[in-house]
Amino acid sequence: MAIFKIGRNDPCWCGCGKKYKACHQAFDDKLRLLKLQGKKVPSHKIIKTEAQIAGIRKAGEMNTKVLDYIEPFVKEGISTEELNRLVHEYTLSLGCIPAPLNYEGYPKSVCISINDVVCHGIPSADRILQSGDIVNVDCTTICDGYFGDASRMYCIGDVDPAWKKLVEDTKTALDLGVAAAKPWEHLGDVGYAINTFAKEQGYSVVREIGGHGVGVEFHEDPWVSHIGQKGKDMVLVPGMTFTIEPMINLGEPDVVQDEDDGWTITTEDGSPSAQWEYTLVMTEDGPEIISH
Ligand code: MF3
Ligand code: CO
Ligand code: CO
Question: Cα separation of 231 and 189, whole Å?
């Protein structure tokens, strides 16, 4: 059995057309050294090629378009089923596919999570947006086989000031997480920054559900903790594409999954929860947001 070893003058594995020595050889040497130092490093599988990044970037742009499109409809009086229909139709009109539909049996084209629903809320004709609601709309779009994933929050009518602050602070937490994501540094820094800020504000961060690698599939490695430990977890390498999507609760961190629908996650104590999500690509110069 032959062991595959790429030669210095062979074409690079990334498909750029250049010789290995002129492209990823130094990069691979760097990864090998980090691994020898005992660090967790990504496999080539989750380090995207330039062609894949171009595809994921386009999917991210399409996903942002879907989120922009739905925004003016997220108002008092509309049902979440109607929002689902609008997301579905618009996504198809772009020549794209809504990733949630039939994903592991999920029944709708978007996740809409209101108040104590942390994530994975299923749109329903019975749930009409009303004054006081805080709403997360989470869209994932497949374009030419690539995935972009992002979510935003909305405050409907008169919202309790503490809830409104939770919504704003959760966005700040996400942005702090992005700022903490540095090439060749650790993924744990991201969750650490998010959790530190959330705790300072008196909130709690959901532990069981995290961000994820994304792009070629909906959910890939690595799993992204929003708690995190500084200097721990996988090294963030240029070419990785992933989400950061903190869920932050006004009360306790514990969450429960609905036993009937198998999807809806709520806070155990009934306190409200907020979430924002971006898809990012890591570059040598830092993270770039490719869907928001
Ligand atoms: N968009 C969610 C995420 O950010 C995943 C939803 S899975 C679904 O990872 F099946 F509920 F759509
Ligand atoms: Co996601
Ligand atoms: Co999402």
Answer: 6
